[in-house]
Automatic annotation (TrEMBL):
Highest taxon of source: Bacteria
Full protein name: Anti-bacteriophage protein A/HamA C-terminal domain-containing protein
Anti-bacteriophage protein A/HamA C-terminal domain boundaries: 59-337
Length: 344
């Protein structure tokens, strides 16, 4: 499966008919392929390797269309696992995640004009304020999903949900993220995102796939869980480049035949407590953590396969990240602390 971006766009070209006359409106949008969206991706992919070790990627389950990718936390030179460093890394990408690309581009342009950092600094504060202070927030998992989708899978986020929140104490109702990919023949893929970080692996897998299922398998009608996001995409999809953004929006306009070409896929993340991380002052050995993760991956994969069947997701294309953690609660607390958020 090609999970690249969208590309091959003919910017403003107009085709001629067989009689040599201009066919107005024809040719303004051609095939969308991987190249065009590459410029929309954010961040340095290699920075992920500082905080997350790849255990396995593209793990398949017979009879299903899922690909499982497993990462565990890295170990530093002193034999320590550093979830707080991971949280700080995530915090530093908060504007990329929470601010629409066009707004960030405009702020960068203004700062360049006036030789300042004022506009971007304002967006940093706005982005941080958009996160909830609820102790059981799932927004850390959603942001980790964003980083892995963009930097590992090369799937750009096309709808910035944090900018749509009207109350920081509430979570946005809809998918945990919306990302774009494309098939080699130019058929766009819309990746609905969902993340769950729980203590128990089975519960995280169960609830994550249960939450993802409606976005992928419900029949098309106005009361589906995905309908609000589709309406927003037709208006709010943002790739910074105005021409490319307008081209993308055509695929979410129900009055356009292009909307019939979109294939729905899923991108999901489950994080959970893993007993193989050392406790207290015991030094961690990276190879041992990787091997323990690899051994447990067979168990997690079996549970994933069972839940995919239960949710009727067997034939849906899903990219699923498994992230074993020293502590799900500890990860959540580290993220809130890095963000400077005091919980009640």
């Amino acid at each position: 499966m090609d999970c690249g971006g969208l590309g091959g766009y003919n910017y403003g070209l107009t085709r001629l008919g067989a009689d040599g006359r201009t066919n107005k409106g024809v040719g303004r949008l051609s095939t969308i392929t991987a190249t065009d969206l590459t410029s929309a991706l954010t961040g340095n992919p290699e920075a992920l390797d500082v905080h997350l070790m790849l255990v396995e990627r593209d793990v398949l389950i017979e009879g299903h269309s899922v690909k499982i990718h497993c990462h565990c936390l890295t170990v530093d030179g002193n034999g320590r696992v550093q979830p707080h460093r991971l949280a700080e890394f995530m915090r530093n990408a908060v504007v990329d995640y929470a601010i629409p690309r066009s707004k960030l581009a405009a702020a960068k342009a203004r700062d360049a004009k006036y030789n300042s950092t004022e506009a971007v600094a304002e967006l940093v504060e706005r982005a941080k304020r958009s996160f909830t202070d609820l102790a059981k927030t799932g927004e850390g998992g959603e942001m980790l999903l964003f980083l892995l989708a963009e930097r590992f899978l090369k799937l750009p986020q096309i709808l910035c949900k944090m900018d749509l929140k009207t109350d920081t104490r509430l979570h946005y109702h809809g998918a945990d993220g919306v990302y774009a990919g494309v098939m080699p023949e130019g058929i766009p893929k819309l990746y609905w995102g969902e993340s769950k970080i729980y203590k128990d692996a089975g519960a995280a897998i169960r609830d994550c796939l249960a939450s993802l299922a409606p976005f992928l398998i419900e029949p098309e009608h106005e009361e589906t869980d995905r309908e609000r996001d589709l309406v927003l995409l037709s208006d709010k999809a943002d790739l910074s480049d105005a021409t490319l953004t307008d081209a993308l929006k055509k695929y979410f306009d129900k009055s356009s035949v292009m909307s019939k070409r979109v294939q729905y896929c899923g991108v999901a993340l489950v994080g959970f407590d893993a007993p193989f991380y050392p406790k207290d002052d015991v030094k961690a050995i990276a190879e041992e953590i990787v091997e323990a993760s690899r051994a447990e991956l067979a168990v997690w994969s079996k549970r994933i396969g069972e839940r995919l069947k239960s949710e009727k997701l067997d034939q849906m294309e899903i990219e699923l990240f498994c992230i074993p953690l020293p502590s799900a609660d500890g990860f959540r607390a580290a993220f809130l602390r890095a963000m400077g958020i005091k919980t009640e």
